[in-house]
Design goal:
By secondary structure, the protein is of the alpha/beta class. It is built from 8 helices and 41 strands.
């Protein structure tokens, strides 16, 4: 036998002897004190575990050695082996019958000087349960706990740690919480600090929440909002004061239709190239300050009970009446069509609209073209506006228009009122052209105080031959999920996870058929709003964003398309990620991309959780 083997055997044998002696000493200490404290129970459990480990180690080494001079040591190990049943422990305590101070009673209790110590008896039973068949081939690690042992621990804390803990059958706690055999849970009350994910319906008599995030619900306003439209704006910005948006339409699409009694202030900080539709706003005011920036596109309003104000400057009187050079222009390439007429600015069923200090263009290729139109009960006030490049000027159709100090020259009708309309011309200038109304309508003016604009000698020309309208649309994911490779299943907890904790994980956000609405469009930008929740390192971990082609959760693992982008996400924070990569923009246009996901290195360093709800704002040209 080599000297190294002898040293190993000697060391392991010494460790075994030391742990054996320590366990015996602890038992004798308990007997001497005639009580078992909480510390004693902990020390005995620890000593017994160490003893068992050392016994198995030295037994394994000795059984592998065949030298005859080791037989004596092997016999000693066998003599000292502790099965931890009641008789074995009694042999230790009595030194194989030599000590008669304590003995085993007929009822199985340990007595010292005729005094019963039931706690020690229970401790021996506990050790017997833990040290099961150490000299047999049985390697089973499960434990069946005796009722006496449960009673022993009933006044103590119980910590259960295992790879899997299975509770089978009906489970109840104090009658207020239960789980039946099918997994249905009933509880009197519940408080949750983290996420609660429900796959299915959730019902309640009264639902009290601080905030609702849903693709079908836009949160209500609680105060006035003041935003800017700028070249560095983002249509995925939050609807809060001081926010910057890229397009007016993008902001209005994100704005709740019910203004909740608040006022909205929009200021242009750049020239805009887009058509604008204001639809269905109520219970408030919307102010569009053009800030002397041109608007290359039409402006239309539909079914608004909210008052609409469009000013050429940043204040009501920021541009003096009659000063042509300071007015910004609304110049459409495509007109708004309604009832065989076409308009550059058009309002239908809007309670009250004010246009002030704006040059409004129409087109001259047809008698059906007007610069401004009001229909279906709209009331419109226009002041210091000039009609340019239009066949006709203003038409009221079943509506009311109030005009004060307006300018320009048209080829045909300067003002027309039909279908019960009324046009009231206040003192001052009106565009050059005919004033026309049908028998059901009227134009009211004082011909002695109203003058035709004689300074404008040319109709002018609309030079906008094609507005490339920049639009944006925001999609909210239906849900998110995580595919776990360890179990080959989806977690179905509305979380999107990357990395590895107990399983290699990848995640997806599913949007249904939303992205198919943009097929064929020219996509210029995608902005994601991703909320990272608790889980993993608290530092700004790196997420790897990917795209997939699933409209909903597939049966197996997801398929990702060839593209990825990294971004640092802070825990419990919503992060904005801007994507301009051609691979993504082209995939949306071609209809091959249906959603986004997370897939990174399978390790704890890249493990992170995100909520299942994200917003994707796509800017495109129409």
């Amino acid at each position: 036998m080599s000297s190294s083997n002898i040293e190993t055997i000697t060391r392991e044998h010494d460790n075994f002897s030391s742990s054996y002696n320590e366990l015996v000493n602890l038992l004798e200490k308990v007997i001497a004190n005639k009580e078992i404290t909480q510390d004693d129970k902990y020390d005995l459990e620890k000593a017994h575990a160490t003893y068992t480990e050392n016994y198995n180690q030295v037994k394994k080494i000795l059984e592998n050695e065949k030298e005859n001079n080791l037989n004596d040591q092997l016999e000693e190990v066998g003599y000292k082996k502790l099965d931890a049943d009641l008789n074995s422990v009694m042999n230790i305590l009595t030194n194989n019958g030599e000590k008669n101070t304590f003995y085993l009673g007929e009822d199985g209790r340990i007595l010292i000087d005729m005094q019963s110590i039931p706690m020690l008896t229970l401790l021996v039973q506990k050790l017997s349960l833990i040290a099961k068949g150490l000299d047999s081939d049985d390697e089973e690690s499960s434990i069946t706990i005796a009722p006496e042992f449960i009673q022993l621990l009933s006044t103590s804390d119980i910590l259960l740690k295992a790879k899997n803990i299975l509770l089978e059958g009906y489970t109840t706690i104090n009658g207020g919480f239960s789980i039946d055999e099918s997994g249905n849970m009933t509880a009197n009350n519940g408080n949750f600090n983290g996420a609660v994910n429900a796959q299915g319906n959730m019902t309640a008599d009264t639902l009290i929440v601080r905030k609702i995030i849903s693709k079908d619900i836009i949160n209500s306003l609680v105060s006035d909002i003041n935003v800017t439209i700028a070249t560095d704006g983002d249509d995925a910005s939050a609807v809060i004061s001081s926010a910057k948006f890229y397009t007016v339409q993008g902001f209005l699409d994100a704005l709740p239709r019910n203004l909740n009694g608040n006022s909205i202030y929009i200021t242009l900080d750049k020239e805009c190239n887009e058509n604008l539709n204001l639809k269905g706003f109520s219970n408030g005011d919307i102010y569009l300050y053009m800030n002397m920036k041109n608007y290359n596109g039409y402006i239309a309003g539909y079914n608004c009970t909210a008052k609409l104000f469009i000013y050429g400057a940043t204040t009501v009187t920021g541009i003096p009446d009659g000063v042509d050079s300071q007015r910004p222009s609304v110049m459409p390439s495509n007109m708004v069509g309604s009832n065989t007429y076409y308009y550059g600015m058009y309002f239908s069923n809007c309670n009250f609209v004010t246009l002030r200090s704006i040059n409004v263009y129409g087109q001259t290729t047809s008698n059906s073209y007007y610069a401004i139109g009001a229909e279906h009960g709209t009331t419109l006030l226009m002041q210091n506006c000039k009609i340019i490049g239009s066949q006709n000027g203003v038409q009221a159709r079943g509506s009311k228009i109030i005009m004060y100090k307006n300018y320009g020259k048209v080829n045909n009708n300067a003002v027309r009122a039909i279908y019960g309309a009324m046009v009231c011309i206040q003192d001052g200038s009106i565009p050059s052209g005919q004033l026309v109304h049908d028998n059901s309508s009227q134009i009211i003016q004082d011909s002695n105080k109203v003058t035709v604009d004689s300074t404008t000698t040319e109709t002018g020309t609309n030079t906008n031959t094609g507005t490339t309208t920049s639009k944006s649309i925001t999609f909210t994911s239906d849900y998110g999920d995580t595919y776990r490779y360890t179990w080959s299943d989806w977690a179905q907890d509305n979380l999107v996870i990357q990395g590895k904790w107990t399983s290699n994980s990848v995640g997806c956000w599913f949007f249904g058929s939303d992205f198919s609405k943009l097929q064929g469009k020219t996509i210029t930008k995608v902005v994601l709003k991703i909320e990272r929740t608790s889980g993993g390192s608290s530092s700004n971990n790196e997420a790897k964003i990917v795209m997939h082609n699933h409209s909903s959760r597939p049966s197996g693992e997801p398929t990702y398309l060839s593209w990825s982008k990294t971004a640092n996400l802070t825990m419990n924070t919503t992060t904005t990620v801007t994507i301009t990569d051609s691979a993504v923009l082209t995939a949306i246009k071609n209809g091959t991309m249906k959603g986004f996901g997370l897939k990174h290195t399978f390790d704890k360093a890249h493990y992170m959780k995100c909520t299942g709800v994200i917003k994707a704002t796509i800017t495109y040209q129409d």
